[in-house]
Amino acid sequence: MSAQSRPGNKTGYLPTLDGWRCIAIVSVILYHYKGRLGPIGTLLPDQLGALGVALFFGISGLLITSRLIEEERAAGSISLRGFYTRRALRILPPLLVFLAALVVLHVAFDLPLAYRGIAATLVFVRNFAWNVGPPLEAWFTAHCWSLSIEEQFYFALPLALLLCKSWERRTFTLGLAGIVFLYGLRFSPGVSAAR
């Protein structure tokens, strides 16, 4: 048994999550290509992409929350500076390269590009900024909505863990889960269609 697969290892690697990641990836890919799969595509549910994204969010939340709690147990507190520095070093370099490539393509080859979409992506509010330009111009950064949601969660979670004592965390978590559940019911396609 490898060090990474032993129970209680400190690497943060959970082999079981690889299977869930695979399901999430396949769900998103099938959602985007279902129109090209002919009769098979018609059998796939419209919510397949949302399922994949929700799985990614759940996996990410589980990993980050467990690592923060482990850090608190080991060090006695959570280092906001350390956490945000690690997130910035993980997310910003590839994001900046991607956005810079879009700008270069826009300048060199007249790629239709909405600069408001780039700005919203840079400050991680692309999920709130849908009308940033004509559909084609907005398309190149539209997929960054999920990154924005993830980074908003990563910004708020360590603060919530620092502000809540351990017994308050359960109440906070259950309350937040209830709000998310009700929000999902309110805006789910099935509920909207029933109105």
Determine the number of helices (DSSP H or I, runs of at least 4 residues).
9
Helix content: over 70%
Termini separation: 54 Å
Shape: globular
Mean pLDDT: 86
| Strand/helix succession | HHHHHHHHH
Question: What class do helices, strands and sheet pairing give?
Answer: mainly alpha
Major pleated sheet: none
Indicate the radius of gyration in whole angstroms. 20 Å
pLDDT < 50 stretches: 1-8, 189-195
Quantity of strands, as a count: 0
Query: What percent of residues are in strands?
Result: under 5%
How many structural domains can be distinguished in the coordinates? 2
List keywords for this structure.
single chain, 195 residues, disordered N terminus, 74% helix, 2 domains, mainly alpha, 9 helices
Molecular structure report:
By secondary structure, this protein is mainly α. It folds into 2 domains: 13-77; 79-164. Helices cover 74% and strands 0% of the residues. The protein is built from 9 helices and no strands. The longest helix is centred in the middle third of the chain and has 30 residues, at 80-109. The model is unreliable at 1-8 and 189-195 (pLDDT under 50).
